[in-house]
Amino acid sequence: MRPDILNPLFSEVQSLKGVGPRLNKPLERLKLQRVKDMLYHFPNSFTHRNYRETLDISDVGQHIIIKISVINIRNGHNYRSPLRIIGEDKNGDTVSLIFFGKNAGWAKKQLPMESQRIISGKLEQYGDELQIVHPDHISEYKSDSPQGDSSESQEKPSVPLVEPIYPLSEGITNGRLVQLVKEALAIRPQMEEWIEPSLLKKKEWKSWHESIVDMHSEYNENAHDRLAYDELLANQITMQLVRAEMDNRKCLPIKGDDRLTKMLQLPFEMTGAQKRVIGEIKGDLEQSRPMLRLLQGDVGSGKTIVALMALLQCVESGYQGAFLAPTEILARQHFANLQQILAPLPVNIAILTGRDKGKVREATLMGLADGTIDIIIGTHAIFQEAVTYKNLAMAIIDEQHKFGVSQRLMLTKKGRGVPHLLVMTATPIPRTLALACYGEMDVSQLDELPPGRTPIDTVVMPDSRMDDIIRGLERHLSAGKQAFWVCPLIEQSSSGKAAAEVRAEMLQKHFGDKVGIVHGRMKNQDKDKVMESFVNKEILLLVATTVIEVGVDVPNASLMIVEAADSFGLAQLHQLRGRVGRGSEKSICLLIRSEELSETAHARLSLMRKSNDGFEIAEEDLNLRGAGEMIGTRQSGGSPFQVADDTHVRALLSTAADDAKLLVQRDGGLSGTRGDAVRILLYLFERDAGVATLRSG
Questions:
Q1: What is the pTM of this model?
Q2: Which long-range contacts (CB under 8 A, 24 or more apart) does 660-664 make?
């Protein structure tokens, strides 16, 4: 149950004064549905105003507050001309207040002739004239002088000297949002401190109660750091709790006797990295505590063989193993490859995807239930409710970010105990981000490529040489070779970026039915059909969006063309490049860039030319883009953090990880002296539900 102290923060925004149906839509667009969302909706910037008694040309460009008397009103000559209201200060110097469009009628009511008003806005100069376009505040001037006192004493203007400027949506003004945030701040609770006292003192951080106010008053780096640390700490404590819970649960120890692994005849020598990681996984599987391990390996580093060795250890012990692939075509490719490798061994391997129906599906389900199938390879179909296992002891998930948390959790519930879990990714993840996204997992890296793998040459060309590129592609296809052509968009848009549909149409005019297209809006079965045609060499050129980033192995494809390459991130470019170089043929990755390049884009493309090392590229991608663009959440691929930006992740995440370990492993977790405060923190950042579900990895 959520602690009662947080109830005001989780109440709907409709509980705030004046929020009715009219404001609901713009607030929904801004994802402001609860009072808590309002508190964490931080300003983009702040307007700083200076109170002035007289107009001065030296204040041009500044936001000023000044008392004026209205001396003239000039209507526009036609509906396009602005309304000009002339005001003068106490010295008789004038300023023109400019109003465009529908604001004219309202402005006349607010600023009648001979009235005195306090106005605020940005002072500008147009020729010899001082002017303020659309003043942001207009209020009546009231004298508070004692009767008979002729002094200029007046009440202080109600216009704030510092005003936060918030991200907005159509239908809500900044002034209205300022009011709503003030209301939300007024009901914020006082909460016990969850940050370790010595760290709080060292960083000179204020309480949460004060810091949240500071973020809406004027940008305060110290307050932002503190609130970001709260989020990072909640993230890391959740992962430590998941790890601790997993460590306390029992699973089937998988000892193995090496009889199957010794029978395995591989046509190549395994790398030192593969042998090291196989040893790490073997040690995990022999424990009665569930394995929870992330295997990172660049494209072509040999992750599948590592996974196979783990599966064989499982079968040697009399248990079943499951291998989950992100797409049907990739599942079938894994099945074909492993079936060939395992042919001489007494191992029964099967496949189960959404395509399998009738008697074939029934036979597979029966084999899983009675234990005659040792290894199952498939898509999400292998963890549907109808699928039961006799003794599932291990699950391997390939390209885990393609699967949601709940799906992975379903798979872990299929075993007699908690199955050991190995998660694999071909996307090298910088250490900091691995800690942020997979902090509850042990991490293994395949950091060397098998010998004999031909390096891919990377070439960068401007889009002005498109004719030369098409001629080179024609020579490539005429030789019976295959190629990918990747575009950033599906269809033409106002951004001017290359669209796959337009490019495919142009290339089909050149190469006819040798050209196919796949993109994210196509149905899965249609995508798979096109990909199969490409694998079977019925299609020689595949035009695609980044749906092929994690894709099928096509050894005959030795040319990757990426159009508008400067609009992609480094890690994405590296993944796309990894689609080629799978066969013996020398492979090329051609990056087409625009004529005008930003400094960051130039740095990215230069590194792509120089390096084929995915881990080096991932670290540099973090430096160039920031964590916010890179971190993949467990579900959707966006950033797991709302408050913490890339600077906070780099500067504070390790400290949060260490603190979380101490709290969970030494200080009693949620039952220690900090436990109650930490529980409130987890509920504040809605990590409470995650404790139950994140154990799936």
A1: 0.69
A2: 660/233, 660/236, 660/237, 660/239, 660/240, 660/439, 661/240, 662/196, 663/237, 663/240, 664/237, 664/240, 664/241, 664/243, 664/244
